[in-house]
């Protein structure tokens, strides 16, 4: 391939890559309300050559009731599964879901975590692909020769103890990717406790997207994240959300704008944090609403 994609790939670019050797496409559509929906959507029609990976079964580890809703998978197990569908050194991976890219950014993060940076998210997702009348099939891809790659964990993570030990200190800036209502402790329908980690800044991941479902221009994203941080060092950022999935959306956005120091994830996020009643929680805005909220 002449070009390697490491953040986003546009629909017309992916269209040109169909049937090319050294390209693996991953369909990871998912509904939190109906976990079987994504697999059914895949069976109903998907991008030619795409493999389906399930958020719960393939892209997360087993839940124990105390480790959050989508704990990280065992890295070697995930690497083996990816190898089964043809992912290996030098292979370009493209992930897609629906228009908001919430799960495909998890795929992007996981592959980078494993040490495979040649992965990109389809900008605009399957919805945009359909709107442009690009090819769709119900055929399953041919089984490729299995590949292997050495796991080299490379994306920074922190645990709850680290977050707790740094609360209200200037060397941590927690960025919460959930919607503003859940951040404030309103309309919580997923986790058993409402609210957020005290001192968190709220940047709903949907704010990274324009009205057409694609990521906003780089200059706009840079301006919004700069205003969100209010002078804080990007190296202090720790990304959180409900279960460590949509937080990857903000990580990708900050990677795109060159804030490479701001890529640390708290994988357990709120669903893990609120599972221990001794950890402090907060509700309301905490005076850390994102730019779009501050302007409304």
The secondary-structure element order is EHEHEHEHEHHEHEHEHEHH
Give the terminus-to-terminus CA distance.
Answer: 45 Å
Kindly report the average pLDDT value.
94
Largest sheet: 5 strands, parallel
As a percent range, the share of strand residues is: 5-15%
Q: From the alpha-carbon coordinates, what is the Rg to the nearest angstrom?
A: 19 Å
The tally of structural domains comes to 2
Q: Oligomeric status of the shown chains?
A: single chain
Count of discrete alpha- or pi-helical segments spanning 4 or more residues:
11
Widest sheet: strand ordering: 1-5-4-2-3
Low-confidence stretches: 290-296
- At the fold tier of CATH, the topology name of the largest domain is Oxidized Rhodanese, domain 1
Helix/strand/pairing class, anyone? alpha/beta
Globally, the shape reads: globular
CATH C-level name of the largest domain: Alpha Beta
What is the β-strand count?
Answer: 9
CATH superfamily of the largest domain: Rhodanese-like domain
Task: Give the CATH architecture of the largest domain.
Answer: 3-Layer(aba) Sandwich
Helix content: 25-40%
């Amino acid at each position: 391939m002449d070009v390697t994609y490491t953040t986003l790939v546009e629909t017309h670019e992916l269209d040109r890559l169909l049937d090319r050797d050294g390209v693996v496409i991953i369909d990871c559509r998912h509904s939190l309300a109906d976990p079987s929906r994504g697999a059914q959507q895949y069976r109903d029609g998907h991008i030619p050559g795409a493999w389906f990976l399930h958020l719960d079964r393939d892209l997360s580890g087993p839940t124990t009731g105390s480790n959050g809703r989508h704990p990280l998978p065992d890295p070697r197990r995930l690497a083996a599964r990816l190898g089964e569908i043809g992912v290996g050194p030098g292979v370009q991976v493209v992930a897609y879901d629906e228009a908001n890219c919430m799960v495909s950014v998890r795929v992007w993060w996981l592959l980078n975590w494993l040490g495979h940076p040649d992965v990109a998210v389809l900008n605009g997702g399957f919805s945009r692909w359909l709107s442009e009348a690009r090819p769709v099939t119900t055929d399953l891809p041919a089984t490729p020769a299995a590949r292997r790659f050495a796991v080299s964990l490379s994306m920074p993570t922190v645990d709850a103890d680290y977050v707790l030990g740094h609360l209200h200190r200037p060397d941590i800036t927690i960025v919460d990717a959930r919607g503003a209502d859940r951040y404030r402790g309103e309309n919580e329908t997923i986790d058993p406790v409402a609210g957020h980690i005290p001192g968190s800044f709220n940047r709903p991941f949907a704010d990274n997207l324009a009205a057409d479902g694609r990521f906003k221009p780089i200059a706009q994203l840079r301006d919004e994240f700069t205003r969100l941080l209010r002078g804080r060092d990007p190296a202090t950022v720790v990304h959180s959300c409900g279960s460590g999935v949509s937080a990857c959306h903000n990580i990708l956005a900050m990677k795109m704008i060159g804030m490479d120091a701001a890529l640390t994830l708290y994988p357990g996020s709120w669903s893990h944090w609120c599972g221990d009643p001794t950890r402090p929680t907060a509700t309301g805005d905490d005076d850390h609403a994102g730019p779009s909220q501050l302007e409304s």
